Amino acid sequence: MYNALTYSLYFILPYVSLVILVCGVLYRIALWLNAGKGPLGLYLGLYRLVIKPKQEDFLDSVKHILARMFTYYTILGVSYRRDYSTWLGVLLFHWGIFLLIAFHLHLWLPQLAVSESVMFTLGTTVGALTLAAGLFLLARRVWIQRIYGVLINYLDDYVAISWVIIIVILGLALRLTASSSLFNEASRWALGLASFKYIPPPSNLLFYAHVLAVELFMVYIPFAKMIHPFSMPLNPALYGKFEDINEVKKRILRELGW
After folding, report:
1. Could you tell me the end-to-end alpha-carbon distance of the chain, in angstroms, rounded to an integer?
2. Burial 214-226 (b: 16+ CB within 10 A, else e)
3. 197 CB-contact burial (10 Å; exposed 0-12 / middle 13-18 / buried 19+)
4. Percent of the chain clearing pLDDT 90 (strictly above)
């Protein structure tokens, strides 16, 4: 007989977390579609980081957003005035998260011909780099108080980065200490979720903690700054172009005679 708490946390909660994540993101998108646009209304994504002067049309905006998402090149331009350490930290942190998520898809695709030794090397290497980058970005928030007069040290920033760091630490600890049978047990549990069939998760405290941290993080995403992976790609669809928010504000003030 399975334990009721284990059943609730590792069979019921994954579905609840996924529903909240999807519905929460869709709800936020609906709010954005109906919100005021522009300098006196709403700009999506990270303030001052997603916009670019002199965007001409929809395709230019799409290319700009994709380039921002994959290379973070504006950090080396106007955003932080060629702050190479920040650029490298942001790049490694975000790409590390993307790759770690991709590696976890192997749980649902055990038929892939990837050896355990390769997955171990890739997982631990990317995990270690992601952890190092996350710790650097967290420390940077302590060192730097203001950028261009905008306060960056909000509680949500600390919570978001710290939560990801905790997830990565738990994952690395699990990877380095777990038995060789863990992957097969975890894969059976994951495939059970995909088929709506309860299969007990691996009996491992680090596994329990790692998965629970991920499930709760999925609930947190739609209601916090971590929504930006979804908001940034929507900018060109909503606006068609971007303008420098400071220049727009100046123009409006001039038109008002202020």
Report:
1. 73
2. bbebbbbbbeeeb
3. exposed
4. 43
